[in-house]
Amino acid sequence: ERQRRCAQQTLQADQWFRLRASPPPARDAARAVAGRPDRRIHSADHEQTLPGRLVREEGQAAHGDAAVDEAYEWLGATYRFYWEVFGRDSIDDRGMPLIGTVHYGRDYDNAFWNGAQMVFGDGDGDLFRRFTAAPEVVAHELTHGVIERDVGLVYAGQSGALNESLADVFGVVVKQYHAGQTAQEADWLIGAALLTDRVQGRALRSMEAPGTAYDDPVLGRDPQPGHMRDFVDTQADNGGVHINSGIPNRAFYLAAVALEAPAWESVAPVWYAAMRDDALSRESDFAAFAALTVAHARRQHGEGSREARAVDDAWREVGVVS
Ligand code: ASN
Ligand code: ZN
Fold first, then answer.
1. Which is the closest atom of ligand 1 to the Cα of 10?
2. The pTM is what?
3. Which fold would CATH assign to domain 157-317?
4. CA spacing 20 to 30 A to 65: which of 125, 138, 143, 152?
């Protein structure tokens, strides 16, 4: 069961709301400098109390605990991406501290954003390693905070799958930006680094080929569709938020690889502008988002640009636009 939580990849809604913390901390005016992250890494010491014991603050040397230092590094890489690419100063664009807790619980096979901070389990060691091992997973969780601030996409059904997809999109682009990888060089996998050798699979999700990330005796088969004709109607996973996210994920992949420039220069700014557009509501579906990306691709690159065509073609190819 505990492995399934991550493969189905969610906390049930009731757990989710119980875990939600009080309002996020305000910017610490004495410490926040635009363009510089303000990281605070805590350890839950295998309990489930948040945020736990403070173990590494901004500017302090490496701690020596791999989970602590990975959380610090990948939160920093994510901050740098949002700042350098979009001029965004942290989750709230006002220098909000980046609070991460590692060693959450025992054998905990997940990571999450709780409304105020990011939380990372160590994994059970059998199928999953620590969740800080993958930069795109750390960036995925931080991006849930960004999405909550900018649109508040309701975490159920299509708006929830869109929420999940945006977390994967910016998560994977953070990894590509950090590694200096073009869209063609990238693996487009989410969470490859946190699977053990025992898992029959490559990652938690593949944006290039949803549904093919794993096929394992314990985890089962990757349930993600890559086209609207295979959209999964389910009560599980808040209406399949981690399942149907495969469809918009693949659209982003297709648009990115159709273009020469790296994803952070080509389509990530288009997706970012669409996410922040006032026309996107908390309950928007895939089609509404797709229309906004096409509009922003035209606005950013020109009416008949290759970029606008690539974005439009990508949504057609996954069956969201017909
Ligand atoms: N790892 C999951 C995620 O961030 C946790 C959850 O289901 N909310 O999507
Ligand atoms: Zn998520």
1. 7
2. 0.93
3. Neutral Protease; domain 2 (1.10.390)
4. 143
